[in-house]
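Wait, mind explaining this?

_____
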Amino acid sequence: MASTSDIRNGLCIRYNHDIYKIIEFLHVKPGKGPAFVRTKMKSVTSGKVLDNTFSAGHKLDDVRVETHKFQYLYNEGETYHFMNTEDYTQIELQKASLDSPDLMKESQVVTILMNSEDGMPLSVDMPASVILEVTATEPGIKGNTATNATKPATVETGAIVNVPLFINEGDKIKVETAKGTYKERIKV
């Protein structure tokens, strides 16, 4: 059993007959009244996001998890296929259980959290950032770097990311996976 002081990003808990992963949390201590923890949780089975508030000291039923490195192989519609890098076993996950599937490249290594009791995959943790090549965008114009204006660009995985005006097709960019936002251009 865990309490609200153990809440952190990535913690998996049992709540309302389902398993949820904590996405965001905030400890709040108001001037009047008891302290509480405001959380945003994502269901690992349905992908539904739920906002919830726990009072301070509330007991939580945490889920024991193991982390394993898996390589992303390919997807068939809503089903994504992964291979364990240690024993080469393969698993399938639905798109709803993935945090940012549109930023995954084939052969990319990700960390999958698995329930240690029954071996069920709970969630996929991507690296903090990925390097992707821009495949389609409007051409950049020299001198357009003074403002914070952005334009949409399609990257090699098919995701659309807002990038600065000086980014051209063929440029490699670093994208933050948690928010799906542009970080920087990579010089080759």
Residues 131 and 174 are 4 Å apart (CA to CA).
